[in-house]
Hints:
Layout: E1 21-32, E2 35-46, E3 50-54, H1 61-69, E4 76-81, E5 85-86, H2 92-98, E6 100-103, H3 115-124, H4 129-134, H5 139-151, H6 167-179, E7 185-189, H7 197-210, E8 215-219, H8 223-229, E9 232-237, E10 240-245, H9 247-251, H10 254-261
Parallel strand pairs: 3-8, 3-9, 6-7, 7-8
Antiparallel strand pairs: 1-2, 1-4, 4-5, 9-10
Helix pairs in contact: 3-6
The structure holds adenosine-5'-triphosphate (ATP).
Amino acid sequence: MSEGAHLRQPETGQPDASHKAILYLEGLNVSFDGFKAINDLTLYIDSGELRCIIGPNGAGKTTMMDIITGKTRPNSGQAWFGQTVDLLKLSEPEIANAGIGRKFQKPTVFESHSVAENLELAMHGNKSVWYSLRARLSGEQQALIDETLQTIGLTENYHQQAGALSHGQKQWLEIGMLLVQKPHLLLVDEPVAGMTHQEMERTAELLTSLAGKHSVVVVEHDMDFVRSIANKVTVLHQGSVLAEGTMDEVQNDQRVIEVYLGE
Length: 263
Ligand SMILES: Nc1ncnc2c1ncn2[C@@H]1O[C@H](COP(=O)(O)OP(=O)(O)OP(=O)(O)O)[C@@H](O)[C@H]1O
């Protein structure tokens, strides 16, 4: 089987979120050469919620995302997707196939293909570009592409070459490329780095519109942006949860203030 053969199959079963949470991280530990990057981390994400994760450099945010997607294996602890999917037993492609999509900071769209073709390619996943762009789209697939373009605000850019999009538009296209794979949980790494103010506002609208239908975890350094989208914020520090609550609650938390002042 070719690399990523399980990846990006659009139809996946629903994770069992009957106990409210879609993601359970419990007592996780990760050491790199004796250094504890993740230290007894326990964190729950509810089904349909939009959660922001903040924390100073080196707090363990990326490592936490890497555990969820199977890129990094913890030394101990538990990571469950819903009630029944043990993430620590799955490979990276199996985790993606189970319905966890990740958007990295830097956009990686296919620059020489059109916006719609990028969505088609993402929808067909592991198939070759040649196959993907010649396969006839079903009515349902075409409808998904149209709906996704509307969600990400790129309907007008259907035929435009992706390489000609602005930085912000490329980021939205890449979010669209995840959406056509119908993920249940979306992990989004620093979505607004390098964006104009206007692009940031549009990204805030986009991410908040995805919550409910999807569960969304956003790691972001820009506090104004976090304030504009967050209901609940988790602050990581030295690999553990330092504080959790509304933006106002965590910003007024003395321990959080000290950690950020100490940066
Ligand atoms: N592969 C690795 N080998 C050794 N140390 C690592 C490795 N990956 C991460 N670390 C260390 O683990 C700690 C946590 O890193 P991580 O990238 O998860 O933090 P972060 O909160 O995402 O930081 P930033 O906001 O700067 O991206 C850091 O001290 C980092 O240097």
